[in-house]
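Batch 3, record 17
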Amino acid sequence: MKLLELTRLEVAYGGIKAVKGIDLNVPKGELVCLIGTNGAGKTTTLKAIAGLLPVPPDAIRYEGEPIGGVRPFELVRRGLALVPEGRGVFGQLTVAENLAMGAYVRNDAAAVRQDLERAYALFPRLAERRAQSAGTLSGGEQQMLAIGRALMSRPKLLLLDEPSMGLAPLLVQKIFETILAVAKEGVTILLVEQNARLALEVSSHGYVMETGLITLSGPARELLDDPKVRAAYLGESD
Amino acid sequence: MDIFLQQVINGLTLGSVYAIVALGYTMVYGIIQLINFAHGEVVMLGAMVAFSVIGALAGTTLPPLVIVLAGVLAAIPACMLVGYAMERVAYRPLRGAPRLAPLITAIGISIILQHVAMLVWSRSPLAFPQIIPLVRFYIGGAIITGVQIAIILTSFMMMGALTLLVYRTKLGIAMRATSQNPHVAGLMGIDIDRIISFTFIVGAALAAVAGVMVGTYYGIAHYSMGSLLGMKAFSAAVLGGIGNLAGAMLGGILLGVVEALGAGYIGDLTNNVFGSNYQDVFAFMVLIAVLVFRPSGLLGERVGDRA
Ligand SMILES: Nc1ncnc2c1ncn2[C@@H]1O[C@H](COP(=O)(O)OP(=O)(O)O)[C@@H](O)[C@H]1O
Ligand SMILES: [Mg+2]
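Prediction for the assembled complex:
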């Protein structure tokens, strides 16, 4: 079953098209990645899905319903969470307050408290720093906080925009382990990455985006072996 | 008589009113970066509504405290409604517009509200009826009245309650999150529009009580009382660092005390060239002096620090 379905999605910034009619599916329970170079239109695509950019209703379907143009806060209530590029933690709020904001739409206080403990178990660094303001955290810790915060809403679909950006290799490894762990718990994920190899290695399915268009797609294994992908995105020549 | 202590008491009284009004300016600025010039008029409307109710009940046998409370309870919802409506009707449509547009609109709203008040209540001031017995306490050579004690206590209680709201409740955390980054706040499922409405409503409720307090203190309320009071409270918010709650409280109290001390001593300091009627000038001189050395205010973050 398709949880998310993009049909000829077009997104423009003041007349200039950044996304030029793409089709993309994310089946329920799977981890799908969208890779491509800088400026390809990946962030624009995720923003449109999350309700941050105006698009026609039918271009985006979520759980079978058209959601194009639905406002972000309503989508969160329906189980769609975006971890934005650059993390977007609230720097002047504490770690605990950031996590509380992730659970803003929920009213089941007892279950929220359980999820909070789960988030701290998943990211022990955050537990140590729960009373610290988020602005004082390192880049990796902020990324963990951003993911942990998104999980606090108990999303059905998690959109991740370049979670590895600007992180040291060891931390990238740790972030990807976390993403896999989250996926194993049954959360459907659409992962945007410039680190194509890692993204394809954890995904079941992949899409390659170039200047606003999907140029390649298929099972992640096949893309990893595709000579064009290897040459353009995995830094190999055949 | 101890002039210094007396002026500190008087300054603390007015200063706590300034602080309450300044909170309204700073909360709105913190969340939508708008200087709501019409906020002083909300204070005025609070005083006018309350005085009308108090005046109507003054002839009855009700105890004075009940009468004043009835005035406050009428003023609060009236001001909340005005605060909500001005954001909804005048500021929200201009959310994406250049910053000058809502600013000019705010000045327009302020003028409109003044004139509406003039039409409703006429140009002549409303007097506070003689229903509260004058209670005085003597402390260390100075006098503090029952009304002064009531104003200071009420103000500090409201400041405490607001601090709890903003720092200890989910709604308050959502307000701070929205003020830091409205886009990301939306991604958390926070309805930004509702948070903004709520901010205006809370600020207006505080303004209503401030209006009753300052009206009761001076014994008079009139349609133009909001201008200078609003200007001073706004200055207090800037003095403390606009957008910062503790700054508004500190700035308000400081401005009130400095102004009162200025009024008490300006004659001596200037060989009676300037009298106590120059107290307003004195307060603004202090403001300018502080801003020269700390442009972001006493507790404000450096400009550009905002997430
Ligand atoms: N706010 C914006 N206004 C105008 N153009 C933008 C804006 N954001 C992105 N773009 C343009 O849209 C294109 C796609 O950008 P983006 O979606 O951020 O790419 P990616 O995330 O793949 O690096 C780029 O050409 C970029 O310059
Ligand atoms: Mg991007």
